[in-house]
Design brief:
By secondary structure, the protein is of the alpha+beta class. It folds into two domains: 2-147, Jelly Rolls; 154-265, Homeodomain-like (Arc Repressor Mutant, subunit A), CATH 1.10.10. The protein contains ten helices and ten strands. It has helices at residues 85-94, 107-120, 126-147, 160-172, 180-187, 191-202, 206-224, 229-235, 241-252, 256-265, and strands at residues 2-3, 7-15, 19-24, 30-36, 40-44, 47-51, 55-60, 65-71, 76-83, 101-103. The strands form two sheets. The chain has a six-stranded antiparallel β-sheet. The protein is globular, with a radius of gyration of 19 Å.
Amino acid sequence: MINTGEICLLDCGQQAHAGTQQFSQQGEQDCLLVMCGVRTTLRIDEKQYYMQPFTFVLVPFAGNQIVVDSQGVTAYRYLHLQINEAFQKRLLNNGLTFRETHTLAQPLAIEEVWKILLPAMDAITPSQREMGIHALQLLMCLLEEASDGSVTRAAEVPHYDKLTVLRHDIYQHPEKDWFIQDICNRLGISRPYFHKIYLAAFGTTCTQDVIASRIACSKKLLETTDKAINVVSQQSGFETDVYFMRQFKKHVGMTPTAYRRIYRQTQTPSKKRR
């Protein structure tokens, strides 16, 4: 259990295949947060949700259990939370409605939160628990950001389905050449209009998403391989090593070499690199 006072994390995990999962209520303020990184269909307590990439739904417990039924090949992450009345009211006042899908404005930030929360649930040391609390506080900020009106509701954004497919492809294939003008030509819209609707849909620009996807890819390569920095840069989609180094330090706060060293110092000896 990780508790910030306003929000308490009771459990978290992920479902990578079709099936039914049940969650049991533990208190009066229990909610289930379900996040999807790919397009999928979920049935939560008999309500059907057609989840687009990088969307989430927050469902309060109406009874003793919540049943999530995932259909087809799917993947979703869940967090069983207790959210106090004041924070629930703040979210509702800002426009985050329960049992409705909302867009994640910063998938990369969510990924970082997730990587900290999972091990923090079983943390032993005070510093590990403290990191879990900070990650949960960041999650609260991301939920508030999704509810503050900066991201337009999906139904109001033209070409939303095409934009979500594009965004999913960007995060799945960061190494590709994502030229804005080529994207606009495929969609048959002008460049200024594309920037406008992309920002309205996701609260960030396409260029920022491309950089974020490449940073995430490079971090994974640094964590799991011994590839040289220039190879990591190339395979992550960056045009030059200098640009990669600059963007990595800007977004991560350290050089790629330092990140790899620090990451591996924190891993257990049993975790071997490929």
